[in-house]
Write a structure and sequence with these properties.
Blueprint: H1 12-24, H2 29-55, H3 63-76
């Protein structure tokens, strides 16, 4: 996947907090920001899938398909190592 570069302006206190988490997770601040954005997008998609699943008739629900969709999202955003789809609540 092609990487893009851009300038990001953010609140200084937020930057310090993200940097602290980056140090705890042993990654750069840039990678921690990338992870936070990927996790945010994953959560948006997860909620949309869950809503779609709940709106589906119990007779036609396919939980395996929904779970596969979540696993695909984890892979897409590079989050598979974090097991986010294990927390479906």
């Amino acid at each position: 996947m092609e990487e893009k570069r851009f300038t990001l302006r953010m609140n200084g206190e937020l930057f310090v907090e993200i940097s602290d988490y980056a140090n705890k997770h042993r990654r750069s601040t840039a990678k921690e920001i990338e992870y936070a954005i990927a996790k945010y997008l994953f959560e948006i998609h997860r909620k949309e899938l869950l809503k779609k699943y709940k709106e589906t008739s119990p007779d036609t629900r396919n939980s395996n398909e929904s779970f596969s969709d979540l696993l695909a999202l984890e892979e897409k955003y590079g989050l598979a190592d974090y097991g986010l789809s294990e927390n479906l609540d």
